[in-house]
Amino acid sequence: MKKTFMLIFVLAFLGCVKIPQGIEPVKDFEANRYLGKWYEIARLDHSFEKGLTKVTAEYLINKDGSIRVINRGYDEKSGKWKDAESKAFFVKDNKTGFLKVSFFGPFYGSYVIFGLDKDEYQYSFVSGPDRGYLWLLSRTPGISNETKERFLTETSRLGFDTRKLIYVKQ
Q: Can you give the C-alpha Rg of the chain in angstroms?
């Protein structure tokens, strides 16, 4: 199951290290403040996350400066946890919220942080290589209505189809 989860994720992102047109990654990004556990609040659904609840991502710094990413979600249908581990590297510089993520080998996908609570690092808006990938992450399993509305307004304005969002059961 773990290998299947990783393979599907990689194939979905195969060769896709780019920023969607009109999306600007955050500047003055501080990786050390981004480290730790994040809860997936909402997402545009894809086969590699289909049916998963209680989804989290944990970010840890590696000695080489890359970021270790541990994604975890509960598959209610099978009653099992699914885990996938990857490595992320900054694409431009370590002050820009644009990383490339690899689950194995030379295959990378985009991880574009385009919205961030820069004061407290409590929520994050993330895109993949195009507008078919979107996540709302939070440091807590729930968010305020204000943050949810900010996310919906901003992502709609940027051309994401927010009608297709899945709100993750935590």
A: 15
Judging by beta carbons within 10 Å of its beta carbon (0-12, 13-18, 19+), is residue 123 exposed, middle or buried?
buried
What residue segments make up the domains of the chain, in order of their start?
2-13+26-167
DSSP 162: G
pLDDT tens digits along 53-74: 999 999 999 999 999 999 999 9
Contact indicator for 18, 140 with CB cutoff of 8 Å:
no
Using CA atoms, how far apart are residues 120 and 2, in angstroms rounded to an integer?
33
* pLDDT, mean of residues 127-152: 97
Given CA atoms 107, 15, 7, 159 in this order, what sign does their dihedral have?
A: positive
pTM above 0.70, yes or no: yes
Report the phi/psi class of residue 37: left, alpha or beta, with left for phi > 0 and alpha for psi in -120 to 50. beta
Q: Does domain 2-13+26-167 have CATH number 2.40.128.20?
A: yes
CA distance 149 to 120: 18
